[in-house]
Amino acid sequence: MSHPTDPADATGSGSAVPEDSTGAAERTGHARASGAADPPPSTAPARHDLVPNAPASLSPTDLAQVDAQWRAANYLAAGQIYLRGNPLLTEPLRPEHIKPRLLGHWGTSPGLTLVHTHLNRVIKARDLDAVCIWGPGHGGPAVLAQSWLDGSYSEVYPDVSRDAAGMAELFRQFSFPGGVPSHVAPETPGSLHEGGELGYALTHAYGAAFDNPGLVVACVIGDGEVETGPLAASWHANKFLDPVHDGVVLPILHLNGYKIANPAVLARIPDAELDALLRGYGHEPLYITGDEPGPVHHAMAAAMDRALDRIAAIQRRARADGGTERPRWPMIVLRTPKGWTGPHDVDGVPVEGTWRAHQVPLPTVRENPAHLRQLESWLRSYRPGELFDEGGRPRPEVLAHIPEGDRRLGASPHANGGLLLRDLPIPPLEEYAVAVEAPGRSMHEPTRVLGGLLEGVMAATATRRDFRVVGPDETASNRLQALYGATAKAWQAAMLPTDEHLARDGRVMEVLSEHLCQGWLEGYLLTGRHGLFASYEAFAHIVDSMVNQHIKWLRTARRLPWRRPVASLNYLLSSHVWRQDHNGFSHQDPGFVDHVLNKSPEVVRVYLPPDANTLLSVADHALRSRDHVNVIVAGKQPTFDWLTLEEARAHCARGVGVWEWAGTEDGSREPDAVLACAGDVPTQETLAAAWLLRRHLPDLAVRVVNVVDPARLLPRDAHPHGMPDAEYDAVFTRDRPVIFAYHGYPWLIHRLTYRRTGHEQLHVRGYQEEGTTTTPFDMVVRNDLDRFRLVMDVVDRVPGLGVRAVAVRQAMADARTRHHAWTRRHGTDLPEVADWTWDEGGDGA
């Protein structure tokens, strides 16, 4: 066991030594701080600078106090994993003091407590506004321990007081039924990153820093996490960080050598290769290596001070001196043993510094008396009597370097972003709505219309800078380029004369990584700002697992009274399945909606506006909402205008509505059939089918229903937007055939409606994985969603109609055959389709 030594007498590895920035660090077992020399700090830094006024090294008193805080946090972290009683070890440990199930992760905890301790020191010394993203997956014990020490935990959970009784409760509740998770989670004060989200820490950190010029975002990256694809892309986020308008991210790469059962890649590559990699990403790395607490404390303090001095100089050059060169930001590489200060070996097998320390290093404590004594020896090695008084309260030396008030990492309002959130100034929709004299007589590109509204929002937030639009290189492709009238695209790398719409202070974020876009926006929202993620529909699936975690975060946070609501995560999915006829099968996938609607009903919302004005209304609602994930699917190609703005608002408020003007029922009886639709292309095909039925079967009573909000199809007890059975039956009838043209996979509609009375009469058409490079109308024909097929469905499903309307059915089948031949000969759609417009009289184009 590596017992903590007296820090004042420690002389082992861990000292900090400057390094020439032109070469890789020479490895001697000592910590080395690298980076080019900076000019002396200004005595009058610009506003928001990180004032470098802390000492460059620790005094003996400071060192003893820092070490006391670290030992206290380590004791509390280990206690959470093992103890359900005897929290202060006032008596010998007995099996009944041990939890029946030992859960948690010790291996990463000592490194996290070390980082937290030293962040506390610099935050207090420099009066920093800071948050920390804790990337290593299950480091919950460490962060919970520190939030209990700084008092923030007891403030939000008064029953976990900062004394012996509260310590006992802190220990008991960890990974315990009715308690708190083993990872950093919404329940953890000061957190804004779910500990299970391996790969996303650094992109969340940059999202938190954007437009937060006074904020320092420390980000601890685990050496397992660093192997993930999203984290690899995240190193490029520093090319988008504006030193004038943004805060700063301080990455801290913790190389403790192992993951759950394997060595970590970056911990095993040559030092020169690691150094070249990190410098290639644009960082000035500072190295700390050690296994003796005292020297490591000295090295960590020196590295923190050097990094913050470097950051202060960068910000001063940009903000006060007008420097425009892209800076090389500092970062810290921390090498300490996995499971440091825990059991060195167990039953003769090495544990500390190996993968065996990853979770519970002594797993059979209740059953094995030798392990119980070893656990007690381990816990007593932290000397808890020096750290806590008789009542279990932390002694003054433990708290000496902990900041006060909202400077504490556990109490930062940036980690509870709803405290900082302001309403978004959305201009009146009337300024952007399209005029609709009659349904189906004009066409607009819905997302282009939305782009005007987003430009207005961007302009209205020009000075407060709390709104951003992110997307993977698709802003103009998705017809949102009006945004460039109010801002440019963020860019800190080289610019060429041929470039367009690039600026260092831009608030449109484009990078060809959906992971980065998602992570940036999540970090931005969780720290109290607003935004929109625009993507091609098919490639939203790339962030399936990320949106899972964000939904889980919101669902949990909504149930914590101290967590304030944050702005919703808004997706605009365009370039959708039905108009990817040019890119083909690889770009055709409408399943993101299915994925989202499987998640927590209290959080998820999906909208399928059929035209430009309904898109404006839906977007206005989504941008104003809180604590939701809103998925809006809307096309960018010219689409018929069906509703005025006033009609669109009413229709969106209902979520599902009967379009009386499109049907042929007269109110004297129930309709013979219901044509339902959701999505812009399905709406067009449904209206065209209604037009054909009006022309060919004028005596047939047809009802047309449009669905903007598919969750309305659910029962009321399954989703807050769900319709009561009586309302559903009134709209869709209890026993009449319903032909439903849906934007995505048809089985989703069946899943949403399977409990409804008339489900056996529901027939859904949608995407059936039939796609290729073809014409727009051929896409719907291939998937049996076309107007002719919908008419055939009505003929087939209205009782008795098949015999009377056999000629109509045959004409529809012939039209499909004619379409096939035409497209193969001409490469375009049938003129009767391409030139069709809605006409109530049934005469068409």
Quick description:
This protein is an alpha/beta fold.
Description:
The protein is of the alpha/beta class and 845 residues long. It has 27 helices and 24 strands. It has a six-stranded parallel β-sheet with strand order 14-11-15-16-18-17, sandwiched between helices. Residues 58-419 form the Xylulose 5-phosphate/Fructose 6-phosphate phosphoketolase N-terminal domain. InterPro entries: Phosphoketolase, THDP-binding, Transketo_C/PFOR_II, Xul5P/Fru6P_PKetolase, Xul5P/Fru6P_PKetolase_C, Xul5P/Fru6P_PKetolase_CS, Xul5P/Fru6P_PKetolase_N, Xul5P/Fru6P_PKetolase_ThDP_BS. Keywords: Lyase, Thiamine pyrophosphate.
The percent of residues in helical segments reads 25-40%
How much of the sequence is in beta strands? 5-15%
Structural class label: alpha/beta
What is the terminal separation in angstroms?
A: 85 Å
Characterize the largest beta sheet: strand count, sense, and whether it forms a barrel.
6 strands, parallel
Shape: elongated
Q: How many beta-strand runs?
A: 24
**Mean of residue pLDDT?**
91
Number of helices: 27
What is the C-alpha radius of gyration, as a whole number of Å?
Answer: 31 Å
Record the strand order, biggest sheet.
14-11-15-16-18-17
Spans of 5+ residues with little confidence (pLDDT < 50)? 1-56
EC number: 4.1.2.-
Domain Xylulose 5-phosphate/Fructose 6-phosphate phosphoketolase N-terminal: 58-419
Pfam families: XFP, XFP_C, XFP_N
Protein name: Probable phosphoketolase
